Amino acid sequence: MKIAIQGIKGSYHHQVATEFFDDKIQLDECLSFDKLIDSLNNDVSEFGVMAIENSIAGSIIPNYSLIDKNNLYIIGEYYININHNLMVYPGVDLNQIKIVSSHPMALLQCKDYLKKIDKTIVEDKDTAEVAKRIIENKLFDTAAIASVEASKLYGLDIIERNIQTIKDNETRFVVVSKLPDKKVISNANKASLKFILSHKNGSLANILNILSNYDMNLTKIQSIPIIETPWKYSFFIDTTFTDIKKYKKAIENVSSQSEYVKEFGVYDNFKSQ
To answer: Low-confidence residues of the chain, pLDDT below 50?
Structure first.
């Protein structure tokens, strides 16, 4: 089984892929989410792992759009605690560091710490890729922000641990595929959907009432502008339920009250321990 991830070995996406599937998977290491999508569309990989939201930084809106535009299916989700660490070439100390480099989301999540140490901040494509480059190029003036696994994998020294601003820092990842996973449906208790509302007054309230009437719990709602139609929005929602029959009936009713409804996936709601 080949899994496309954003980043390389030692990244948080790599951690999710191995924990969700197993450590015997093959990886297609992609330094952008666009490349990850290409890997799926070109049948290089069977599944992709994508970060979709973070408890500090919020939703990764471009990834919602990528899933939608490429007609991908969400077949599962996985949550992990993100613990960022400042790491350097072995033997280097903080006073020698001039540059701190990492993925923009990691930098944002460590904003308070970075203000305190007052170094030049450089955005990069992947947390683990920066760690790897420090070793390969013997960068004595550069520190990476990455996972403990990345430091072990590439042989860097961690000089500060858990530097994220909010210590309880959790990221939600989704597992996507070109095809729905029909095996999961019988155990499903969560769904991801998109809908576009009509212009009637109270349209959104009507949708929310339908979900409530069928005992569905709205866990996420995200509005995204429809580029082709200024000031019109689509809504991406996640909802949990206990009865698949009630869920299907609710979606029938939602469809009758909306201009458009799209189901990205019905899957098992799972959190890592």
So the answer is: 272-273
